[in-house]
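Try it yourself: sequence plus pyridoxal-5'-phosphate, in.
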Amino acid sequence: MNDLAGPIAENLARVRSRIEAAAKRSGRPAESVTLVAVTKYASVEMAAAAVAAGCHDLGESRPQELWAKAAALAEADVRWHLVGHLQRNKVRRTLPLVHLIQSVDSERLLTAIDDEAAALGRRIDVLVEVNISFDAAKTGVAPDALESLLERAASLDHVRVRGLMGMASLEGDAEAARRDFAALRLLCDRLSSRVAPSVSLSELSMGMSGDFEQAIEEGATIVRLGSVLFEGLEADE
Ligand SMILES: *Cc1c(COP(=O)(O)O)cnc(C)c1O
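Structure, out:
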C-alpha cells in the first residue's frame, strides 16, 4: 500500500486538474463534476489508496466484485456506484451496499429494485443507462424507449431516478465520443421538461479515461475513470 499511495495520489491530482480545466471550459466549477474511481482493474489495496487520497466515490462494473470490495473496505468512507449490468437475482445483495446504481437498463430491473428497496425500507437512487451509440453490442435502454421507462419510474415509491448514464461507441476517437455525449445531453434536456416531478434528470454520467474531458465539455456531472487512475500500477499480490 505504501508503494501505491504515492502514485495513486499523483494520478488523482493530475486527473482532478484535467477535470477542473474541462469544467472551466464548459463554464462550470470543478465541484459540479463527481469523479467515480472505477476499481475493476484495481486491487483492494489500490482502491483503499484512492480513498486515502480523497476519492470517496468508487465504482464497480460487476456486482460480485462490488460485494467483495465493499466488504474488504467496510471501515472506509466509500460511496459505492454500480456501473455495470445488474442481474435481478443480485439486486437483494447489492442494494444495502450502494449509493447509486448507474446502470438501470430495463423496466423489469427497475421494478425488481423497487420491490427489494421497499422490503429494506429504503429509497434507492438510480441512473437509467441509455444506449446512445446505437451499438447493438452495448447495453442500455434504446433512446425511444426512455420516456416510457421514466414514466414507469415515476410510479414507483422506492426507486428515485436522478439522471442518465451513457457510454460512447467502442469505435471512434474522442471527438466521435463527443457526438454521442452531445446526443445524450440533448435527449436529457428534451425529456427534463416532460418527466414527472418525482423523476430528476439532473445527473449525467458520461466519460471514461479516454474521453472524459469531451464528456465534461458536453455537460457530464459524473465521470467514471479506471485506467487513467490505476493503469500500470502493480496489483499488490
Ligand atoms: C470499466 C468501466 C469504466 C472505466 O473505464 P476506463 O476506460 O478504464 O476509465 C467506466 N464505466 C464503465 C461502465 C466501465 O465498465
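One thing you can check immediately is this: The chain has a mean pLDDT of 94.
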